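User: what does the whole thing look like in 3D?
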Amino acid sequence: NAGVTQTPKFQVLKTGQSMTLQCAQDMNHNSMYWYRQDPGMGLRLIYYSASEGTTDKGEVPNGYNVSRLNKREFSLRLESAAPSQTSVYFCASSLAGANTGELFFGEGSRLTVL
Amino acid sequence: SQKIEQNSEALNIQEGKTATLTCNYTNYSPAYLQWYRQDPGRGPVFLLLIRENEKEKRKERLKVTFDTTLKQSLFHITASQPADSATYLCALHSNSGYALNFGKGTSLLVTP
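Assistant: Here's the predicted 3D structure for the full assembly of 226 residues, as structure tokens:
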């Protein structure tokens, strides 16, 4: 099993450009998450989807949009990238809510905004 | 506000010793607490989940304690090995129950 797959692994953008980070899981999980990780800040939740058809804001949602395309896929879109969005982005999934079990993480997408 | 605090200073220990990492939290009433391992350039990997009614949980060389009175969890690695060198993250579920909030992690370095 591939687990959680993120694409692209690396991306460089110019300020104002848009892009979408893709995430797919093959574990039939109900819940999916997007986190960003910055030095000294730890992992911070951007958005999550408790189940197919629902999405909710996390701690740092400004500047991002998400789409739960189907049960497998959860994408994160930056409409107008800013240097403050330079970060490592992690997608994760869990069978049910995070209060009932472990999260499975992808390998990360490293985004640089110039 | 809710906080999860882990020692930001790296922990350096000698191979064979026991490593103890601390996680303190405020303004949470967690039913569960989780520990993850993260290697450089990789995503976090789940290690252990402990429930509030479980004072201690073990998995091979790992041991986790959970004291809801002290609002603290301790993570122990016994007979540590250089391969245990990584960053260890503590995590609690948010008030919504659907997402995990993470501490900033503690870096562990085990030297031969």
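In plain terms: The radius of gyration of chain A is 13 Å. Residues 7 and 63 of chain A are 19 Å apart (CA to CA).
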